[in-house]
Recover the amino acids of this structure.
């Protein structure tokens, strides 16, 4: 027996449920998309920071390589610069441990500095012009480094004087040539990451003979 007026008793319940499920699926899709975008941004940020870290560490090694490979002929190839605007020198600390203004800005600034006026040396190899499979390793700008002369390594004098069992000016004069072999240089490097949103700064200490035209060096052999 047929059921008359069955259609008339339906009031759009199926359509309402379909709309509810459609809204829920849309919310889930949007949430998944936002999560994916956030994860991609986090991955990109991590990659950017890692590129900046690799760039600044590479620049540090470049500064150490620069000092290591200096052709030293006992004519002191690195003149000190306290209040001058040049990079063909090594920055020295002024009176009362006051840093040169450019050195202070280079070490502490959170912004990327203008390479034409930051007083730093460029790293000797291009790190922003890769092509092909290496293009993803490009930095936004070439890393740079600055060199400071920090003076003598103090404990050397004490150890040498004690070993001789003597005191006074005679000991210091006797040890002068050996003390001159222990000079400290601070290398500060700056690098951007894959974009200018990241700026990394790192430092290292390099120990060498006196590479400036101040103080003294051991007599040449």
């Amino acid at each position: 027996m047929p059921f008359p007026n069955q259609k008339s008793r339906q009031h759009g319940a199926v359509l309402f449920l379909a709309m509810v499920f459609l809204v829920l699926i849309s919310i889930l899709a949007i949430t998944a998309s936002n999560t994916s975008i956030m994860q991609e941004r986090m991955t990109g940020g991590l990659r950017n920071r890692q590129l900046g870290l690799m760039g600044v560490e590479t620049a540090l090694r470049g500064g150490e390589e620069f000092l290591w490979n200096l052709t030293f002929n006992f004519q002191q190839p690195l003149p000190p610069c306290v209040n001058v605007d040049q990079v063909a020198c090594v920055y020295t600390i002024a009176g009362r441990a006051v840093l040169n203004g450019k050195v202070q800005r280079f070490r502490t600034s959170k912004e990327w500095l203008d390479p034409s006026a930051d007083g730093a040396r460029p790293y000797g190899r291009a790190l922003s012009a890769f092509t092909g499979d290496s293009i993803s390793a490009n930095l936004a700008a070439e890393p740079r480094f600055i060199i400071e002369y920090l003076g003598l390594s103090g404990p050397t004098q004490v150890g040498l004087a004690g070993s001789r069992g003597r005191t006074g000016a005679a000991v210091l004069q006797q040890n002068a040539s050996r003390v001159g072999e222990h000079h400290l240089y601070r290398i500060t490097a700056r690098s951007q990451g894959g974009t200018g949103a990241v700026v990394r700064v790192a430092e290292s200490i390099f120990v060498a003979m006196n590479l400036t035209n101040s103080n003294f060096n051991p007599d040449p052999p």
Summary: The radius of gyration is 32 Å. Residues 13-68 form the longest helix (56 residues).
